[in-house]
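Support case: user asked for a sample of complex input and structure output to validate their parser. Sending the pair below.
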Amino acid sequence: MIKLTGINKSYKVGNRSLQVLKNVNLHIKAGEMVSIMGSSGSGKSTLLNILGILDTYDDGEYLLNDALILGMNETKAARHRNKMIGFIFQSFNLITFKNAMENVALPLYYQGMSRKKRNALALEYLDRVGLKEWAEHMPSEMSGGQKQRVAIARALISKPKIILADEPTGALDSKTSVDVMKLLREINQEGITIIIVTHEKDIADATDRNIVLKDGEVMTVNKAGEVIS
Amino acid sequence: MFDIEKWQEIFDVVKANKLRTFLTAFSVSWGIFMLIILLGAGQGLRNGFEAEFKDDAINSVWIRTGNTSMAYKGMKPNRRIQLTNEDFDLIKNSFEDIDHITGRDGGWGAQMDYKEKTGNFPYRGVHPDHQVLENTIMITGRFLNNTDVREKTKVAIIGQDVVVELFGNEDPIGKYFSMWKVPFKVIGTFNDEGSRWENKMVYIPVSTAQQVFGGKPNLDQVMFTTGTTPQDRVTQIVEETTQMLSDKLVFDPSDSKAMYARNNAEEYKMFTGIFTGINAFVWIIGVMTIIAGVVGISNIMMITVKERTKEIGIRKALGATPGSVVSMILLEAVVITTIAGYTGLVLGVFSLEYISTLASEPGTFMNPGVDFTVALTSTLVLVVAGSIAGLIPALQAAKVKPIVALRDE
């Protein structure tokens, strides 16, 4: 599903060049649920952005579903994101002036689906995350857990191959975090690949595999979760 | 292509930002409203001025006399200078350029009776050419002719208001009415687009007026037209006439109280120049107002894009292409500008219509309004202005990087 080979990425900070990812090699199979851990500044968000085609890489090779993701223009990248990838963010990133149903339906708007059809589908997905009754509510009227479930429904609606979750439980209490992780596991069991960026060990432990990033490099981890190289 | 989904999306955004939309729309509306009012006011001034001139032949010269204000050749000031038939003949015979000439001898408030009806109206004793000088439009019958003047006939041509007040629904042609108890036969009725007094006027032969009501060959005014004579020559004729009358009637030729010659063509030319200037000024202010509006919208849209960076980032992450982001911002600007501008346009036109009902009488300000072409051009300018105003912010929005935007808290 995802194959990264020798990925390097650096940013310009003033006159200096800061290398964020160093020779990253990674293979994630279809249907896997993996976590990416690392301390602040280890490059995990950059890696997630590259995986989500939100950012480019300097050199190496990124294959998504056997297609090379390289040198895409913005329009093509947007279409790819819309069809292949669902995003879940720590701060939910719902559009504040749209209600839950309209937020969930938004990715389908960019597929050219009619409002009636996409709203009907959005209701189905809200039902799936247990929020059908909240369809007409605005994000400001919802709790953090509810907002995140709306964001999950939005990530699922375009039937993506991968879901990229950036600290999905970072803004939630522990009980809600467990619920959200449960929901993600259910989704994963339907065959959707899930990649979660987290710094919480509990969350990482709830995934099939943990990838550890340190100073932009992927570390090898033993069965006990200890970094061995 | 008309994409209803896109419009609904824009409507959602506009609905979500009511105050911002209102303020943007108001600045555009106000700009266009002011432009229309300014253009209409300019037109109103021009209409008023043209109506004043429409009343009289444009290539005409009007000579009237009064009391001297300067001592001249041993004569004291405050001496009455009186035009007579002799002066009329002198002017008429001195210049070949004159194609129509008339004297005028009249009075105000003459009592006129027809059957049991009575009224007070102004009258003028004139020559036949007066019709050309005053642009008198005959409705029925005829105007005075040379025979009427030569024979001193008691005939009259009466204005529309006199017809209504004295004759009501009766056809006045051929009927006799009395002016200060002297019977006159109505031989014509007329309409005049000048001041409200013009349609209350009664014209009689100048010779009859002099004999019946004055007993002297005096004239209040002498007016003539000069056909297609060039303006320089007309100015020369005016100067020569002034000199001629100054010699004959003994007054200082520079004494404008003793004799005043109004050269309509010269005044018309001067006013036309002034109004061309006013018109240009109004357009410059109007265009500046629109530019200020465009800059205002552009500025507000820039702030909007900044405010909506996160939302744009989310949209991009969810699959919005740069094209769809550009069209979203651009269409929003165009929609706001067009609707607001059109509202300003309609309000401006209605206001002008209202002002027009208050200023429909000839005067310095009359029937303000804008023509269809100006309204259409303004609408087109608005759409273009809206596009320009939205373009820079839209391009800026398209450049928003989802990663940066999503970090933007």
